[in-house]
Amino acid sequence: MIIEMYVYSRTGGSIAVAEAVMQAAELSGHAVELVRLKPGNENDPDPDTIHLPDLADASLSDLVIIGGPVHSFAADPVIRAAIRQIPGLDRKRVVLFATDTSPLDPFGGKRALSQMGEELQARSCRLMHSAVIYWNKKTRDSQIEELKHALKKIYG
Ligand SMILES: Cc1cc2nc3c(=O)[nH]c(=O)nc-3n(C[C@H](O)[C@H](O)[C@H](O)COP(=O)(O)O)c2cc1C
């Protein structure tokens, strides 16, 4: 399976999740490209004006994984911009993950996933699985294992 991963990370948590997922997928024989999102204008709150240069094309992939942090109780605008801009994303099977620091609903993990899901709907994608990883919790390793397990089921 060809897997394209697009990840935004400011402080390293989301990229650490992505690297763990990538390592597991590669050990299972899949080809994974990890694209770290590097916006030209990182603090722009408007997904429509965030510039993401040289975004890799997803059209040849069998599965797309998109992840990044919760900021201000919502999906970071960079992630929303990426979902709008990734070439070849339409109608793809997609897995989402968000990282945050609190398991409590008001802190935005579920809201972020639902915002990312809405962006995917606009690209006619099929959401296969989504997960929040509570980065500062002792349970984060087991949450990453759960994500890897869910992905293994999708790989078939
Ligand atoms: C500016 C800023 C805003 C944040 N807002 C939230 C928030 O609303 N809810 C939450 O649970 N965590 C929040 N966090 C914590 C991050 O979501 C968390 O540390 C995440 O794992 C960071 O991912 P990264 O290391 O990939 O950048 C915030 C962090 C920063 C720096």
What keyword list fits this structure?
six-stranded mixed beta sheet; 6 strands; globular; 4 helices; 156 residues; alpha/beta; binds flavin mononucleotide; Rossmann fold
Largest sheet: 6 strands, mixed
- Given helix and strand content, the structural type is alpha/beta
What's the architecture in CATH terms? 3-Layer(aba) Sandwich
What ligands does this structure carry? Answer: flavin mononucleotide
Oligomer: single chain
Mean pLDDT: 95
List the topology elements:
Blueprint: E1 2-7, H1 13-27, E2 31-36, E3 63-71, E4 74-75, H2 77-85, E5 93-100, H3 109-122, E6 126-134, H4 140-155
Parallel strand pairs: 1-2, 1-3, 3-5, 5-6
Antiparallel strand pairs: 3-4
Bound molecules: flavin mononucleotide.
Q: What does this protein structure show overall?
A:
The chain has about 160 residues and is an alpha/beta fold. It has a single domain (about 1-155), classed as Flavodoxin domain (Rossmann fold, 3-Layer(aba) Sandwich). It contains 4 helices and 6 strands; from the N terminus they run βαβββαβαβα. α1 links the parallel β1 and β2 (about 30-35). The termini are close together. Flavin mononucleotide binds near residues 12, 69, 70 and 99.
Question: How would you concisely characterize the structure shown here?
Answer:
The protein has 156 residues and is α/β, with parallel strands linked by helices. 35% of the residues lie in helices and 26% in strands. Helix 1 (13-27) crosses helix 4 and helix 2 (77-85) packs parallel to helix 3.
